[in-house]
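re: that chain from earlier
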Amino acid sequence: MELIHSVLTDEEREFLAQQPVLVALSGGADSVALLRALLAAGCDCRAAHCNFHLRGEESMRDEQFVRDLCQRLDVPLTVKDFDVTAYQCEHGGSVEMACRELRYTWFEQERQRQGCPVIAIAHHADDQVETFFLNLLRGTGVKGLSGMQRLNGHIWRPLLGVSRNDLLEHLSSLGQDYVTDSTNAQNDYRRNRLRNIVLPVIEQQFPSSDRRILDTMDNLARDHALLKTLVNEILPDERHFDIKALCDTPHASTLLYHRIRHLGFNREQCVNIIEAARQGHSGRQFSANGHLLVINRQTIDIEPLNEPDDIEIPLDLTYGLQSPVHINIEQGDMPFSPHMCDGKHTVAFNTSLLDCQRVVLRHWRRGDRIRPFGMNGTKLVSDLFNDLKLNHADRQSAWLLEADGDILWVLGYRAAALYPIQKESQNYLILRQI
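^ sequence. v structure.
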């Protein structure tokens, strides 16, 4: 009963009295303990289970366990199958990141479909400590070190104050079984290495260190809340800033960062913004996540980026193009050599490109991805623009060559590793931007 009372605050109990809760249920000890505790607290629970099919029969075992558990507890269950490999091929990234993106996107869809105000996730106190160290090791600020929030949007984590040992003891008292993911014992992921190797040594050498770390995280969360309040009072307008007043403020770049970080701007950008503003670089632009920051004579202003146009210009690969960009196309008449193209203004592809049904020239759109040479998976074209340090105007004016839905060439900057040419082959096309 002690766990049940620690899961819900009085305010949460009142809020959820007449509303269903969507519980992310993997079948592991944490999520099973969460489901049992919420049910015992009187919550109307709906369960959602993801099957990523990454562990063969073990994945099917987990799904069957969840189905049996929900049937026995009379909890409505929705199961979703995912093809992680296909998702990675389209979006890139690691298996861990792909699963996370797929999982949370689907949870939100289910939350809306079933009319649930929150998605209950079984992150607990041990996860908080792991998050502290992971964020510390990758480099972060006060917010990152304060860890996960109990309520973040529609994501609700009611077990953050409960240790895993307490969850296991609660399940044991109920006689409730659960499944164990065999990959948790493997150290292929950073979090597993931290959990299985590093933290046990720290706990052995410094008993009760996890509790002191949690207290520190709580203090940091309070400090961050105060910092946010003070920053908003100093800079009440998040879109327009007086350059003189801002630059005369102590720690101006840090102040600016905490005011506009939620728009996607990072610390390095804010340092450069303040430096450019102090040097009077009027017209200098910075962009982040759909926002454009412009340094004017007396003010720094942030506006939404204009959406790119939808103009598409068909390209005949047998003739080339004269306008708006002059592109010559030549078919190979001698063995191909990589020296024939620079990958920027002159690129080459296998003649199988001629079989494409739709080849167009267009401007960049949000979400566009390219598969660069030497990289597994794809990369956002916007990230490529960031690497190249292109300003807003150059990004908007850049032309992309698309063939049957794939980005083949960002003209003047980079070609994709698609339609590759065999060594010394004569079956190739050379596209040259004039």
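The longest helix spans residues 209-234.
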